[in-house]
Design a protein that fits this description.
With 104 residues, the protein is mostly helical. It has helices at residues 3-25, 29-55, 80-96; strands spanning 70-71, 74-75. The longest helix has 27 residues, at 29-55. It is a multi-pass membrane protein.
Amino acid sequence: MTYLGLSALFVALCTPLMLVAVLWRRPSRRWWAATGLTLASLVVLTAVFDSVMIAADLFRFDESRLVGWFVGLAPVEDFAWPVAAVLVVPAVVLLLTRDDREQQ
């Protein structure tokens, strides 16, 4: 299996949780803005720190399993993990947070 296939599988498994949370709780624009800002921040941090770690030769990828697209030195497949985190963590928080409107 390629890194892209593994990444796509992981993101595909995380997506339904986000869909359920969003459809059930109907988050506000503020929630969407915070989630988008979190995603943007994690993508930038991934690009920077993965490139630094790869340049320092802390780890290597099997070149035959990469798509061949890079952001800095980071392969595009590495960006699936922050995307998956932004799908799962806010969805879980949204599902576990009690809605104040339900109290009234």
